[in-house]
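Continuing from yesterday's entry. The apo prediction looked reasonable, so today I'm repeating it with zinc ion included to see how the binding region is handled. Same sequence as before; SMILES copied from the compound registry.
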Amino acid sequence: MRLQAMRIPPCVRGAYADLPAHQTFDLWIEAGDVISIAPSTEPARGTLLSGFVDAHVHLDKAYTVGTAGAAEGDLMAAIARCAADRVSWTAADLRLRMLRALEDAWACGTRAMRTHLDWASDDMPVALRVFEQLREQWRGRIDLQMAALVSLDQWADPAAAQRIAGQVAVTAAGGTSALGAFVYRHAALREKLEALFDVAQRHYLPLDIHVDEGLAPDARGLRTVAEIALARGWQGRILCSHACALSVQPPDEARATLQACRDAGIHLVSLPTTNLYLQGDWAGTPVERGITRLREAAALGLAPCIATDNVADPFYPYGSFDLVETFGLAVQVAHLAAVQDWLAAITVAPARAMGLHWDGRIDEGCPADLVCLAARDDHELLTPAGRQRSVVRKGRFL
Ligand SMILES: [Zn+2]
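Holo prediction written out below.
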């Protein structure tokens, strides 16, 4: 197969990263791999990216909004609605909903995903077995990773922590699996996080934390995570999502937190759809929007990711698993320019954050797992016509 005159953003190129952004390329694909890339003199026919990587989703919650109801901007109400709905989740129901999510993501061009799974008690959730089956069935199409979403208080209970981490360690034999928590202004925050780090280090499992998902300026979960990671020398094994509170903290304080994150090798993930829905005023038009400081993070040398988070559940009743859609929203709400420089946030950055075998840079010898977007330039990327795409997997169009 030959792809002609494709624009490849420099941040997604392997070789030729120093050529101008508007440069186009011809690619030859054989036996599932890109076997050669050469600069073209033709004007762009479209934009070529590596398959998308979604570092933060909730497959177990997806498509429950019909039974659970939407939370209209109240995170605690969303948590309560989800908990009430969860008691009726069966393996069959989970499988149908999770499959629907995977089919959607697959058609949109996603090649890997990390899903959080609610861990409401010390017992293994029903969703874990369904996840493990789907992980096997989808291996090579969408590579699946898992993070156990556990309350921070459970990690502070040594018996519960040991039991949960033991279950996650068993799952990790089949693919990367992380310990996670929801962290927001907890009493004894540092002590509980230290307990979580203890168990993660004991089992050599990565951490994946929902942190500071709110607009209270005194939320310092992210800073605390970074400080503990640095003190323990446990760098590069932590993914932190949301960090909404950074957006309302004084710039100097936010900057110091981001510097600590950079030094601790923390991967920062922004989730614009859910944040826009749950954060900010609902009594009137919102002013604060809860989007973390993506631009400041990038300026300090972090490589932030943008991910989907919730789809059609109490936390976000709309949406799909189309990362281009989410990316376009982030571009507008966070003023991400130049657009082409940020496309790493749904390709290369999450591939590295998840430790994938291929980091998503398009180069000779890389897998031909690609997305050809119709957009011929940055501006068209944010139009419905520009988002039209053909997905190439193992060297063939879907
Ligand atoms: Zn989440």
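Comparison notes:
- The radius of gyration is 20 Å.
- The first strand starts at residue 2 and ends at 7.
Will overlay with the apo model tomorrow.
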